Known about the structure:
By secondary structure, the chain is α+β, with helices and mostly antiparallel strands. The protein has eleven helices and 17 strands. Helix 8 (about 235-250) packs antiparallel against helix 9 (about 260-265). It is globular, with a radius of gyration of 22 Å.
Amino acid sequence: MSTPLRFRTQLVDSPAGVSSSDWDTLLARQAVPTPFMQHAYLSALHESGSAEPRTGWAPRFMLLWDGDELAAGCPLYAKAHSYGEYVFDWAWANAYAEHGLNYYPKALVAVPFTPVPGSRLLARDAAAREALVRALINWCEAQKLSSLHVLFGDEADQAACEAAGLLQRQQVQFHWNNVAPEPSAQEMRPFADFDDFLASLTQEKRKKIRQERRKVREAGIQFRWARGGDISEEDWTFFYRCYERTYLEHGNPPYLTPEFFAAMSQVMAEHWVMFIAEHHGQPVASSLVAVSAEGTLAGKAGGVAYGRYWGALARVDSLHFEACYYQPIEWCIAHGVGRFEGGAQGEHKMARALMPARTHSAHWLAHPAFSDAVERFLEREGAGIENYLEHLEARSPFRRAG
């Protein structure tokens, strides 16, 4: 396969190799343009030392040019490991090793450390997107890499990858949607407030959430939130203490450096909301949520909030649920945000009314026998995902009609 001659292929070793204007203009044309694919976000990951060759992320951003126009592009990495991806292929790497083959380095199209669904293969149209996938495979073959992985792409990405023969994989996340059923009119509307949201749940779940929130209040915890430029330097410093401590308590250093969050406070401040828990005026925990555009229009909620990071310096019963779910949900209702994505994994989120949502990845393996084996594995895994989703649906926390 070869890239059509009308496209000129370019590889750059950092986001700095392409102008922010060209990249963000192309991003704005996509179906799901999340803040995490913005030039400023990707640049901050690299310039802060969070994602770089030293940490196993060797950037090879791929660009397709039609004259002076950026027709397609994607963040591409030669990965030396599978950390920070959230689509797990450790078993595949182990199988390669057992047969004396190298699985690493592999090629990855993803946003480092960010399991948020959205557009990954930026393109002006379907033809350019398909050309981008072909160019990626050509590069992998030329570099003799074991595999190519496109993580958390949107439907257009999935279609382009499937057309190129990549194997399809599904995962499950948990998202909350700001829609209240109206049984009489069979219509949907945003929730009026948190009590309105609670009224949509079964009595058991409603009671549980109220109990958890009461425990936090009775412990003397109060919350405040700030957005964008209202988040002070002291708030960012305190947040990083919480974030770092959470990782260290699990035996790992944090993926993201203080310099990364310092950059976010400067160049993408409007995309962040911070919730800070205080005990007698002293901060004890915090959570950080990213946001796209929001606002209620014609009775419908819009925009997305993304739960990203949290940490605590004190142990308080149910504080995690309050900081990571209830405060953000209450904020989303108050600000007309249509969806809150709770991050990777976490079946326990269903008890807080975050419902299962499918996410997608696509995979190409150079070795024919391993590609066949992985394809058979994904067929079995896919059937298991379908059964899992049916099981989860039967456990819905929402009241059922009648």
